[in-house]
Design goal:
CATH architecture of the largest domain: 3-Layer(bba) Sandwich
Order of helices and strands: HEEEHHH
Number of helices: 4
Low-confidence stretches: none
Mean pLDDT: 94
Number of strands: 3
Shape: elongated
Oligomer: single chain
Helix content: 25-40%
Number of domains: 2
Distance between the termini: 61 Å
Strand content: 15-25%
Largest sheet: 3 strands, antiparallel
Bound molecules: flavin-adenine dinucleotide
């Protein structure tokens, strides 16, 4: 598990129970989740680098009772152009939103982006800094529009 040992210990102190060598398969429940379906895994043969990739144990599926499930399965961005029906929103090959680094504006005029969705998985300090910069750029953009609208009136 790619987490620090201290964080794992802290989580266990808080009552988190890790189900090592298990992989989620789906959920049970009709209108509300009632369980998480999972399978036991085992470590397969080592590859050239010596790493043993997990593989499913046959006939090992089990269900954990649950009334709330939070999916936290990686750091990849959602497919935003499809999600927002905005194919003109430019994204990188990793799915992060492309911005003009000077203005923080995306390829959609008047739409700005900041933080992890631009940088990929990063740090809070950068998200705060980017958010402040984006706010300034939005202010500039709106002020310029207000001046242009006044001049046209
Ligand atoms: C497990 C974990 C541990 C971390 N530990 C650290 C750490 O120790 N130190 C550190 O500096 N950083 C840490 N980070 C990274 C840090 O959390 C991020 O860099 C930071 O939160 C990015 O901020 P953000 O505002 O860009 O994005 P987020 O914090 O992800 O905020 C995006 C917000 O947008 C909302 N949203 C998404 N889609 C929509 C939508 N369609 N409509 C409206 N709202 C929407 C989300 O609900 C969310 O509130 C950690 C991250 C994770 C996942």
């Amino acid at each position: 598990m790619p987490g620090s040992q201290r964080e794992v210990l802290n989580a266990e102190e808080e009552g988190v129970e890790f189900c090592w060598l298990s992989a989620p398969d789906g959920f049970t429940g009709k209108t509300q989740v009632s369980g998480v379906k999972a399978s036991r895994m085992r470590l397969g043969p080592p590859d050239a680098s010596g790493r043993q990739a997990p593989e499913p144990e046959p006939d090992s599926s089990f269900t954990l009772k649950a009334d709330l499930a939070i999916k936290a399965l990686g750091f990849d961005p959602e497919p935003l152009p499809a999600l927002f029906d905005a194919p003109e929103l430019a994204v990188s090959r990793w799915g992060t939103v492309r911005i003009d680094p000077k203005t923080q504006m995306t390829s959609l005029p008047g739409v700005f982006a900041a933080g992890d969705i631009v940088r990929g998985a990063s740090l809070v300090v950068w998200a705060i800094r980017d958010g402040r910069d984006a706010a300034q750029q939005m202010h500039k953009h709106l002020a310029a529009h207000a001046v242009a609208a006044q001049a046209a009136a």
